[in-house]
Amino acid sequence: MNSIDLSQYTGLITANLPYILLTLTLLIFLALLVFINVSIKMSRLNKRYCKMMEGMEGNNIENLLTGHIAEVRTAMNKVNHLENEYRRLDTIAASAIQSVGVIRFNAFEDTGSDLSFALALLDGKKSGVVLSSIYGRNESRVYAKPVVNGQSTYYLTDEEKGALSKALENKS
Q1: How many CA atoms lie within 13 A of 10 on its CB side?
Q2: Contact (CB, 8 A) for 140 and 108
Q3: Phi and psi for 112 in degrees, rounded to 5?
Q4: CA-to-CA distance for 71 and 66, rounded, in angstroms?
């Protein structure tokens, strides 16, 4: 029985030999294409690996990554320190004089020049002081009036209002 079955297989193979060879040739050609594709990808991967390992000089990736992690932590600590310093300086700057308005005027007709003045000094919250200096021939006087949120609870002269307006315009 084996010889009969074997001869039938041999006849089948012989009858279809061109098709079988064509199929095997196509499979070999397909395998060659897959091999070329894998080879190109391996070449690219090898180039990337060599570029990544450039300058390693015997170090392993674990040591390299550990070093980079330490550098990142140091940088993060510096950033946090700078952020805290920024907040501190921002708080200080908000209370510093940020806008100034000055009006010079002649308080009395018997004095020459505009020797009197109104000076508004405001911080970042539009708060501060309005200083007025009234110059006369025999005496000079200086007045200070507080300003909170761009307003004073004290009566302001026209010159003081003008100085405050100038300071508020400089702020915006």
Answers
A1: 6
A2: no
A3: -95, 160
A4: 9
Hey, what long-range contacts does 96-100 have (CB within 8 A, 24 or more apart)? Answer: 96/123, 96/124, 97/121, 97/122, 97/123, 97/128, 98/122, 98/123, 98/124, 98/171, 99/167, 99/168, 99/170, 99/171, 100/166, 100/167, 100/170
Please name the residue that has the structure tokens 């702020």: 171
Q: What angle in degrees, to the nearest 10, is found between the helix axes of 17-52 and 2-15?
A: 70
Q: For 92-142, write each residue's pLDDT tens digit.
A: 888 889 899 999 988 877 666 788 999 999 998 889 999 999 988 788 899
Determine contact, residues 89/110, Cβ cutoff 8 Å: no
> How large a percentage of the chain has pLDDT more than 90?
54
* Beta strand residue intervals within 4-136, DSSP E: 99-105, 116-122, 128-135
Average pLDDT, stretch 49-70?
A: 78
Q: Quickly tell me which residue has 């029985």 as its tokens.
A: 1
**Residue 29 banded pLDDT, cuts 50, 70, 90:** very high
C-alpha distances in Å from residue 46, one per residue of 43, 59, 62, 63, 143: 5, 18, 19, 21, 81
Query: How many Å apart are CA 134 and CA 105, to the nearest integer?
Result: 9
Separation between Cα atoms, residue 171 and residue 110, nearest integer Å:
36
Mean of the per-residue pLDDT values of the chain: 88
